[in-house]
Amino acid sequence: MSRSxxxxxxxxxxxxxxxxxxxxxxxxxxxxxxxxxxxAATTQLQNFKLALGRFEIDMGRYPSSSEGLRVLVEKPGxxxxxxxxxxxxxxxxxxKDQWENTWNYRQPGQHIPEGYDLWSNGPDxxxxxxxxxxxxxx
Length: 138
Known about the structure:
- The protein has one helix spanning 8-59, and strands at 104-106, 117-120, 133-134.
- It is mostly helical.
- The chain has a single domain (10-134), classed as Glycoprotein, Type 4 Pilin (2-Layer Sandwich), CATH 3.30.700.10.
- It is elongated and about 90 Å long.
């Protein structure tokens, strides 16, 4: 006599195999996505560095910590505002990092006292981790 249907045990076994395969494939895609975000954040950091360099050429100084990166898209108040030739970044707002967090900026820098510190807290969103993307690290 031949069987014409699957047993519950056979169906469960197939579902377990599919779940394991989905877990393996899914974890590989998540790893690639994170790697792509880190590369994009590194590129964005380089764009900020170029914009800050152009600001420094025009204004004769880097933005203060209180001005922050905002002065790359908005004209600052105070002295020597005629020298501002911005906006130095596209758009009307400072972009966030790839994890939707604000970029951190400090001038003078603790790591680069003669310039500025610029960093993203990276994937974990916490400052000071090994995953931070910063202008003072490679």
